Automatic annotation (TrEMBL):
The protein's name: Uncharacterized protein
Taxonomic superkingdom: Eukaryota
Pfam short name (any one): DUF4360
Species this protein is from: Eremomyces bilateralis CBS 781.70
Length: 170
């Protein structure tokens, strides 16, 4: 289920020039360790964003940037995976990055540089011009005593994902 972003815990912003879509998540974190409740090591979120696409234009997402904080003991691996699809379709394009312990730092990860799936063209397909974004964070370790946390930035407590939008004429 959507255990990582209940209503009211995330927001979406589009830059004034429509070149960047930023998703911000409050309290989006995964933890692992001997006293951590089962299931806390993985969080999932799905968000649908409606985009106003002008006539004769379409867009695609070719990369993703992730910002946050991690504290991973030796043997703990954190993975961030996101995907997006157009018109209600899931994960037509996927991005993934991993962090390996020991590591304790704010991070900025860039994933992508691939050609993403292209949206339908302009207003004639406007009912299909929504983008469904999925995001999963998870922690794994073979050592049951190892601890780890992957979470929001320590300064503003917001996990941030930035998606550059590439626009082209149809």
């Amino acid at each position: 289920g959507n255990n990582g972003c209940p209503p009211g815990t995330f927001s979406v912003a589009i830059s004034a020039d429509n070149s960047i879509m930023t998703l911000m998540f409050d309290n989006f974190e995964a933890t692992i360790g001997p006293k951590v409740p089962k299931g806390s090591n993985s969080k999932y979120c799905a968000v649908t964003v409606k985009l106003d696409v002008p006539d004769n234009w379409r867009y695609r997402i070719d990369a993703a940037d992730y910002r946050g904080y991690c504290n991973l003991e030796s043997g703990v691996t954190g993975t961030i995976t996101s995907g997006y699809g157009h018109g209600g379709k899931n994960d037509q394009t996927r991005f993934s990055k991993s962090l390996r312990g020991p590591l304790s730092e704010d991070y900025l990860l860039h994933s992508g540089n691939q050609r993403g799936a292209t949206s339908p063209c302009g207003k004639q397909a406007n009912s299909k011009n929504s983008v469904r974004i999925t995001l999963r964070i998870g922690l794994q370790s073979r050592n049951e005593q190892a601890q780890g946390l992957i979470t929001a930035d320590s300064a503003d407590h917001v996990f941030k994902q930035e998606l550059p939008l590439t626009w082209e004429k149809c």
